[in-house]
Design a protein that fits this description.
Layout lengths: L1 H14 L5 E2 L13 H6 L1 E5 L8 H5 L3 H5 L4 E4 L2 E5 L6 H17 L1 H15 L5 H14 L7 H13 L2
Parallel strand pairs: 2-4
Antiparallel strand pairs: 1-2, 3-4
Bound molecules: zinc ion.
Amino acid sequence: MLPKIERWIDQTILDFKDKRHSCDQFSSEFDGYYTKDFLFKSHFVVVDEIPKPTFPELYQAGLGDFVDMEVAGITYKDTYFVMAPYAMDLSLHFHELVHVHQWALLGPEVFIQRYITEIQTYGYNSAPLEVMAYSLQDQFMERTSPIDVSKYVQGEIEEAYRL
Ligand SMILES: [Zn+2]
């Protein structure tokens, strides 16, 4: 199922290629958290409906609730999708960009496998990859001193997954 999901993701990113915006427009807001280069290479698409794979295998794997869950944003590799009402929600952009780092650090295959296993084991709210993103998002919103997100995510992933 994993290669099928990855093919679907690649096709989806391709389908929205012309609607992608570079995240470099957030370089001043996210200064100290994300590098300019990383923001330049990350993209978002504003949509009316979040694209999600709806393969029967996902429902059979017990992921139906997650697939059907209404979300404001979702990240696939270096591109994330946000619902139109949240297009200017900085905190959501911040959250999804944590996932872009996770995708890059783990690699697509490992990320997809991990994410699915975490949803099955802990549920969405307690999935470690989500907890990490929400925790960094909270710290950003509290406006404490900036955190190097790349370094933070790398440290957390090494500790949790012993890569
Ligand atoms: Zn998330």
